[in-house]
Amino acid sequence: MPRTIWSGAISFGLVTVPINVVSATEDHSVRFHQYHLEDMGRVRVRKFCETEDREVSGDEIGKGYQLTKEQVIPISDDELSSLPLPTAKAIEIEAFVPLQSVGPIRIGEGYYLQPSGQVAAKPYKLLRQALSRSAKVAVAKYAWSGRERLGLLRVRDDVIVLHAMRWPDEIRDPTELLPPPVELSDEEIDGALALMDTMTREDLEGEEFRDTYTEAVQEIIEAKREHRELPAAPEPAEPDRVVDLMAALQESVQKAKASRGEDAEVHDLPKTKKAAKKTTAKKQPAARTRSDAKTSGRKPRRSA
């Protein structure tokens, strides 16, 4: 069972839902320590006081705000936890919005909200079902770790999830990163859509969605522990130089289908405009004769 990160309540109008916050994710990365290469002694970071030039323990360390070079304002944890803010003790719901209105770049880490005790069961279920039926998400404010944050509440598998959100001014403007103006044909866009259709799937379950980097690191550790030869690194594939974008899309569709065990034969992607014009010209009906015009009841034009 994951440990509780924070305890408080969800404030939903006049409804209060006592909750415990636990992490919704796990990190399975391989962790390394620092060692002295000569004797493999552990290298540790020690905390020293610059004024007394000595190592200090954790209970001697506190927070402070540097006002000037000579003046530091001490701030205690008790003072931070007693801030005159409603969000210091509660997750205050401010609004309900469609999920599509929230840019994905603003959504961060996820946390499960667990009802705290029997008294929270009914209001927790009320909020959960209201969110599910409305197809909306709640936007809330809360204060953790010395700052007020914005959060998004949604439902996942009958549990309310809180996602940390970034404030609007924390999102950088990407304008300067845009590529120079280029022209794309409708055929090229249709080709990209055809490739997307080939690569579309219903879920993210499968061998290709696993952490191969961590597995490779674990293989190295195991090989060194058993004094075996390290696994050989694969040769990096040389990226193909894209000359014909349509040809690259066609080949990508074929490879995508083959990798999924499907028939590698695919329909030709849309032809270029020049080819399309030729095809259209061949299919144009022949000019009508005078007899055709009489049959249709129209007078034939006189030749000049």
TrEMBL record:
<feature type="compositionally biased region" description="Basic and acidic residues">
    <location>
        <begin position="259"/>
        <end position="271"/>
    </location>
</feature>
<dbReference type="InterPro" id="IPR009187">
    <property type="entry name" value="Prok_Ku"/>
</dbReference>
<dbReference type="InterPro" id="IPR006164">
    <property type="entry name" value="DNA_bd_Ku70/Ku80"/>
</dbReference>
<keyword id="KW-0227">DNA damage</keyword>
<comment type="similarity">
    <text>Belongs to the prokaryotic Ku family.</text>
</comment>
<keyword id="KW-0238">DNA-binding</keyword>
<comment type="subunit">
    <text>Homodimer. Interacts with LigD.</text>
</comment>
<feature type="compositionally biased region" description="Basic residues">
    <location>
        <begin position="272"/>
        <end position="281"/>
    </location>
</feature>
<comment type="function">
    <text>With LigD forms a non-homologous end joining (NHEJ) DNA repair enzyme, which repairs dsDNA breaks with reduced fidelity. Binds linear dsDNA with 5'- and 3'- overhangs but not closed circular dsDNA nor ssDNA. Recruits and stimulates the ligase activity of LigD.</text>
</comment>
<feature type="region of interest" description="Disordered">
    <location>
        <begin position="245"/>
        <end position="304"/>
    </location>
</feature>
<feature type="domain" description="Ku">
    <location>
        <begin position="53"/>
        <end position="182"/>
    </location>
</feature>
<keyword id="KW-0233">DNA recombination</keyword>
<protein>
    <recommendedName>
        <fullName>Non-homologous end joining protein Ku</fullName>
    </recommendedName>
</protein>
<dbReference type="InterPro" id="IPR016194">
    <property type="entry name" value="SPOC-like_C_dom_sf"/>
</dbReference>
<keyword id="KW-0234">DNA repair</keyword>
<dbReference type="Pfam" id="PF02735">
    <property type="entry name" value="Ku"/>
</dbReference>
